[in-house]
C-alpha cells in the first residue's frame, strides 16, 4: 500500500493464495481503506500523517471497537468498503535496455545508442506543480575480450521530483561487487540493515542486490534492474501525467506518432532512419547545470563532467553486419535470441553473448510488464442474498458467481451471474423468498386474475345486453316507418 500525497491515506490490499483480491464483503480480513498510512506521509508532523500513531488511532482502534469488541462490524464495513478494480487505471511504462533500445510510454520502439548523459523524462506533476526528472548515463560496451566496441549501455540513472531527495542508481565501480549502488544526494546509501528507505518525497526499496524500486509522492515509479553491468530502466507513470511528458520516452498521450520528438519541438517521422534517431536522441543531452548525477571519480569527471554531454566523437554501429549462416556467431546468436531482434542486434554488434542475453532478459521482462498493465475489467462486488449462499469471490471479466437458497426458501432472480466484458453482471439480482411468502404471492396473483376475469365477463355480458336492447329498439322504429308508408299510398 502507498500513502496518498494529498490526504496521507492508504489502502490495504489483501489477496488469497490464488492472488485474487479479498473484499470485506466476503471476509473479515478483506482489503480496507485507511485514513492514516502505517508509515505516515510528509510532513509527518500532523494527523493523519504521523507514522504508526495515526494509523493506530484512525484505523486499528476503530476496527477493534466495531469488529472485535462489539457486534457492529457491519457498520464499520459499511463506511469502509473495499476498493475494487473498477476505478483502477494502470500506469504507462517507458523502458530502455541493451545497446540502448527504448520503448516510449505509448509503445513506440526505437534504438538510440549515443554516448553521454540524456533526459529520459521531464514531466510536470499536476498535483504538486513541480517537475519529475529522470536522467540516464551511457558508457561503452565491452566485447567478450573486454575491449571497447562501438555500442553503449545505460550504467546510471538519476531522478528527482520537485524538491525531493535526489536518488541515483548505478552500476558499481567495484569489480568484486555484484550489486547496484544507490546514492542519496550524492552519498552512497547502505541497505545493510533494511531493504527500504522512506526519504524526503521519495521511497526507495532494494529487493535484491540487482533490483531497485523508487517511488515518488505523485505515484510515479522507477524500476532499475542490473544484469552484466547493464541497466534495464522502466519508468511507470499514472494517468495524471498525460500530455505532461517530454524526453526520450516521448509524450504520454496514447499516440505513438508524436513520440520521436526533438528538443526544439519538431518531430521525426515514424519510419525515421537510425541516423535521424541518433540526431534526435542527441538533442536530449543534459547540461551540467541541470545534471542530477554524481561525479565522484576521475573517470566520471573526465568523460562526463568536463566533456560534452553527447560525445560528438563517438560513432555507433547503426546496422550490424550480417554474418554468414555458417558462421558460429550467427548460429549461436540465433540459438540464444530465438527471434528477439534487439537481442540479435546487440549480440552481433558487440560479439558478446552476455550482452545479448541481458537484452533478451530485459526485453522479456518488459513484455511481461506491459501484459500485466492491461486495463482490468471488473464488475464489482455482488452481495450474498439474505437466507442464501454465494459461491465465488472473483469479480473480474469472465468470472461466474453462483447462488443457492436455504431450505424452505425459493430462489428468485438469477441463479448464475457472469461478469461481462462491458463491466456489467449478467442476469438479475438474486433473492431468496420463503415458501409461505411464495404461496401468498401466488394466491394473491390467482385471486387478482380471477377478479379480473369476472370483471371482463361482466363487462362482456353488459355489452351483449346493450346490443340486444339496441336491436329491439331498431326493429320497433322500422315497423313504425312501414305503417306510415302504407297510409301515404292510400
UniProtKB/TrEMBL annotation:
Gene3D superfamilies (UniProt xref): Complement Module, domain 1
Transferase is among the record's keywords: no
Matching SMART domains: AMOP (SM00723), CCP (SM00032), VWD (SM00216)
Classification via CDD domains: CCP (cd00033)
Matches recorded under Pfam families: AMOP, C8-3_MUC4, Sushi, VWD
Ranges where the VWFD domain occurs: 92-292
Protein name: Sushi domain-containing protein 2
Organism whose genome encodes this protein: Callorhinchus milii (Ghost shark)
Amino acid at each position: 500500500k502507498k500513502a496518498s500525497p494529498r490526504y496521507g491515506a492508504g489502502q490495504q490490499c489483501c489477496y488469497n493464495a490464488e492472488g485474487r483480491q479479498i473484499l470485506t464483503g466476503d471476509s473479515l480480513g478483506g482489503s480496507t481503506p485507511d485514513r492514516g498510512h502505517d508509515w505516515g506521509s510528509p510532513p509527518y508532523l500532523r494527523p493523519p500523517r504521523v507514522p504508526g500513531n495515526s494509523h493506530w488511532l484512525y484505523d486499528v482502534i476503530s476496527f477493534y471497537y466495531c469488529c472485535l469488541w462489539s457486534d457492529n462490524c457491519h457498520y464499520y464495513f459499511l463506511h469502509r468498503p473495499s476498493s475494487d478494480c473498477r476505478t483502477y487505471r494502470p500506469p504507462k511504462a517507458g523502458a530502455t535496455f541493451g545497446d540502448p533500445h527504448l520503448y516510449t510510454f505509448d509503445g513506440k520502439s526505437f534504438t538510440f545508442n549515443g554516448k553521454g548523459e540524456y533526459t529520459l523524462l521531464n514531466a510536470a506533476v499536476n498535483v504538486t506543480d513541480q517537475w519529475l526528472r529522470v536522467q540516464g548515463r551511457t558508457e561503452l560496451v565491452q566485447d567478450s575480450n573486454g575491449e571497447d566496441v562501438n555500442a553503449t549501455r545505460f550504467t546510471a540513472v538519476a531522478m528527482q521530483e520537485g524538491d525531493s531527495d535526489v536518488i541515483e542508481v548505478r552500476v558499481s565501480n567495484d569489480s568484486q561487487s555484484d550489486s547496484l549502488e544507490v546514492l542519496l544526494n550524492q552519498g552512497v546509501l547502505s541497505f545493510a540493515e533494511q531493504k527500504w528507505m522512506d526519504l524526503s518525497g521519495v521511497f526507495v526499496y532494494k529487493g535484491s542486490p540487482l533490483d531497485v524500486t523508487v517511488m515518488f509522492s505523485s505515484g510515479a515509479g522507477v524500476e532499475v534492474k542490473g544484469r552484466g553491468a547493464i541497466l534495464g530502466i522502466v519508468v511507470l507513470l499514472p494517468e495524471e501525467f498525460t500530455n505532461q511528458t517530454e524526453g526520450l520516452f516521448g509524450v504520454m498521450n496514447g499516440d505513438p506518432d508524436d513520440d520521436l520528438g526533438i528538443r526544439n519541438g519538431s518531430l521525426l517521422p515514424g519510419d525515421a532512419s537510425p541516423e535521424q534517431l541518433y540526431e534526435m536522441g542527441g538533442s536530449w543531452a543534459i547540461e551540467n547545470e541541470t545534471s542530477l548525477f554524481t561525479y565522484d571519480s576521475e573517470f566520471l569527471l573526465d568523460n562526463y563532467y568536463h566533456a560534452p554531454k553527447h560525445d560528438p566523437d563517438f560513432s555507433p554501429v547503426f546496422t550490424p553486419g550480417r554474418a554468414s549462416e555458417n558462421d558460429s556467431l550467427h548460429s549461436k546468436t540465433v540459438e540464444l535470441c530465438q527471434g528477439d531482434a534487439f537481442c540479435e542486434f546487440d549480440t552481433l554488434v558487440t560479439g558478446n553473448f552476455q550482452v545479448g542475453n541481458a537484452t533478451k532478459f530485459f526485453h522479456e521482462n518488459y513484455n511481461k510488464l506491459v501484459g500485466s498493465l492491461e486495463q482490468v475489467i471488473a464488475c464489482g462486488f455482488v452481495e450474498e442474498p439474505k437466507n442464501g449462499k454465494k459461491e465465488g469471490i472473483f469479480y473480474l471479466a469472465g468470472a461466474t458467481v453462483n447462488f443457492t437458497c436455504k431450505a424452505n426458501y425459493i430462489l428468485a432472480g438469477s441463479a448464475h451471474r457472469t461478469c461481462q466484458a462491458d463491466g456489467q453482471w449478467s442476469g438479475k439480482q438474486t433473492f431468496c423468498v420463503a415458501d409461505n411468502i411464495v404461496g401468498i404471492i401466488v394466491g394473491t396473483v390467482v385471486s387478482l386474475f380471477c377478479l379480473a376475469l369476472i370483471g371482463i365477463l361482466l363487462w362482456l355480458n353488459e355489452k351483449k345486453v346493450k346490443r340486444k336492447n339496441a336491436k329491439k329498439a331498431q326493429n320497433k322504429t322500422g315497423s313504425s316507418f312501414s305503417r306510415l308508408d302504407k297510409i301515404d299510398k292510400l
